[in-house]
Design goal:
Layout (H helix, E strand, L loop, with lengths): L4 E4 L13 E4 H4 L4 H12 L8 E6 L5 H14 L4 E9 L2 H10 L4 E5 L11 E7 L8 H11 L4 E4 L11 E7 L2 E8 L3 H10 L2 H9 L9 E4 L6 H11 L7 E2 L20 H9 L4 E5 L6 E5 L4 E2 L1 H10 L5 H6 L3 E5 L5 H9 L3 E4 L7 H5 L3 E6 L3 E4 L7 H15 L3 H12 L1 E12 L1 H16 L7 E4 L2 E10 L2 E2 L6 E2 L4 E5 L4 E6 L7 E11 L7 H16 L1 H5 L6 E2 L1
The structure holds alpha-D-glucose-1-phosphate-6-vanadate and cobalt (II) ion.
């Protein structure tokens, strides 16, 4: 029999979850009691229901996941949790955690990931709490966790529990007079079974094998050495009959092979080149924890995430899941281009615009008002879980391609012809000094609120834009009326073009400035986004004086 030990501790500053969990450098988490404090604060935030509860635990395989899984096991035991469902070797993708929480109706789950941030001893780690609906904890819960972390004085742990998570199976412990169970589960099985329910696998398989055309549809799926590797193997190779040549980087590595596991044109350039130079009809990449996706077609034809969302919205009828559930509303995060809004309007569906971060979609899904949603940051998903889901998005695209027998580029061209096109780009200025960036945002907000700003004209490259609306986006949740303020500075011009500026809430050091540019064209739909948006980008740089404040004349990443 093991017993609970109470360890005294002191609060650390800054254990404030950001857009999606607490993300810091590994070395920060390695400080004495730092990780223990945060885990205890998560459990304390659930104190009314923690005793006797079940939690799901898993992460993206990055450096420190195994050690932290072990700490969670011991601290959960110390706090009266009855059972943990832990992914084998601590491996679970973020959407898989969401599914497990829902399927086994647990109190919630703890996800160990810093998502698209690099991993390894000198890089990032993260801890996120998901609630019983499977979604990331909403602001009131994360605020509570943070508050508890600032006043913590002790944590409860059972140091004597020796629990290996290498083998699938049930391990039982006695803690005082309580039973404590750790069930190590297959990391992929439940998720793969679910995907087989949602999609028509035989149809996708027949597409990949050539179907009626008898010409194989060649895919290249890149896991970027993140958590999706084993899921990709199980789905694409074992279920859909693809070969080793159709997948790459499917072994999860603690440091993602030194790469930045972020599926975009910059960090997944490898995949883009392979598709460009090879005989591939479709390419997809996923981030470290498996919730983001990038979709490209033949010759690396790039689908912006905002367009991807709109195209899927327009074709949901090809997916068996939606044939069963029907299609409720659509939603996007505020900075995401408004392409999906036009699909919603044409279909007569409700359309929502929420702040950045997947946690804001959960209530709408739980209320049965939202089927499909997405973010410009390579996030797409549906109400099948309460996280964005990279593999789901790739399978959704393949379902549409199988049903329409069109190429990716043909689908986009048709879409733009029918709905017009939102040209969109995002400039990221990563790891800038924080103070000048905060000052830039304050000064810009002041300027935007000053008299005469609305109505003012701004010109560049022969184009003139007149400000129609200028605000700091705030959101009232239509379901529980909770309010999220100051979610990004937004300048909307008379022609509907938009500039959005916000500071990232997922970085682990310094400030990352995100500049989003969105412009709609009804008929001029085949141009290059960078060329089309150049005047508006210039206007954004003028108004914000971003280069002066950040000291950068080029962004780190353009998507
Ligand atoms: C970024 C994205 C946001 C996304 C979040 C979590 O947040 O902009 O859309 O929801 O990452 O994604 P921020 O605050 O850095 O802009 V993930 O795949 O990192 O969990
Ligand atoms: Co992610």
């Amino acid at each position: 029999m093991a017993s609970v030990v109470t360890v005294s501790t002191k609060p650390y500053e800054g254990q404030k979850p950001g857009t999606s969990g607490l993300r810091k450098k590994v070395k920060v988490f390695l400080q004495e009691n730092y990780t223990e404090n945060f885990i205890q604060s998560i459990l304390d935030a659930n104190k009314d229901s923690i005793v006797g509860s079940t939690l799901v635990v898993g992460g993206d395989g990055r450096y420190l996941v195994k050690e932290v899984v072990d700490k969670i096991i011991k601290i959960a035991a110390g706090n009266g949790v009855a059972k943990l469902l832990v992914g084998q070797n601590g491996i679970l993708s973020t959407p898989a955690v969401s599914h497990l929480i829902r399927k086994y109706k647990t109190l919630g789950g703890i996800v160990l990931t810093a998502s698209h941030n690099p991993g390894g001893i000198n890089n990032d780690f993260g801890i996120k709490f998901n609630c019983s609906n499977g979604g990331p904890a909403p602001d009131n819960t994360t605020n509570e966790i943070y508050k508890l972390s600032t006043a913590i004085s002790e944590y409860k742990i059972v140091p004597d529990i020796q629990c290996s998570v290498e083998k699938i199976g049930v391990q039982k412990f006695k803690v005082g007079d309580r039973d404590f169970v750790v069930e190590v589960i297959d990391s992929v099985k439940d998720y793969v079974d679910y995907m087989k329910e949602i999609f028509d696998f035989p149809k996708i398989k027949s597409l990949l094998q050539g179907g009626e055309k008898n010409k194989p549809f060649n895919v290249l799926i890149d896991s970027m050495n993140g958590v999706t590797g084993p899921y990709v193997k199980a789905i694409f190779i074992d279920e859909l009959g693809a070969s080793e040549e159709n997948v790459r980087r499917i072994v999860p590595l603690e440091d993602f092979g030194g790469a930045h596991p972020d599926p975009n044109l910059t960090y997944a350039a490898d995949l883009v080149n392979a598709v460009k130079n090879g005989d591939y009809d479709f390419g997809a990449a996923f981030d470290g924890d498996g919730d983001r996706n990038m979709i490209i077609g033949r010759d690396a034809f790039f689908v912006t995430p905002s367009d991807s969302l709109a195209v899927l919205a327009n074709h949901l009828q090809h997916i068996p899941y939606f044939q069963k559930t029907g299609v409720k509303g659509f939603a996007r995060s505020m900075p995401t281009a408004a392409a999906v809004d036009r699909v919603a309007a044409a279909a007569g569906k409700e359309m929502f615009q929420v702040p950045t971060g997947w946690k804001y979609f959960g209530n709408l899904m739980d209320a049965g008002r939202l089927s499909l949603c997405g973010e410009e940051s390579f996030g797409t998903g549906s109400d099948h879980v309460r996280e964005k889901d990279g593999l789901w998005a790739a399978l959704a695209w393949l379902s549409v391609l199988a049903a329409t027998q069109l190429s990716v580029q043909e689908i986009l061209s048709q879409h733009w012809k029918q709905f017009g096109r939102n040209y969109f780009t995002r400039y990221d200025y990563e790891e800038c000094p924080s103070d000048p960036c905060n000052e830039m945002m304050q000064e810009l907000e002041k300027k935007m609120g000053s008299s005469g700003f609305v109505g003012s004209s701004h010109s560049s490259g022969g184009k003139t834009y007149v400000v129609a609306v200028a605000d700091n986006f705030s959101y009232i949740d239509p379901v529980d009326q909770s309010v999220a303020m100051k979610q990004g500075l937004r300048i909307v011009f008379e022609d509907g073009s938009r500039i959005v500026l916000r500071l990232s809430g997922t970085g682990s050091s310094g400030a990352t400035v995100r500049l989003y540019i969105d412009s709609y064209e009804a008929s001029d739909v085949l141009g290059s986004a960078q060329e089309k948006l150049a005047p508006l980008i210039d206007v954004a740089l003028q108004i914000s004086q971003l280069q002066k404040y950040t000291g950068r004349d080029q962004p780190t990443v353009i998507t």
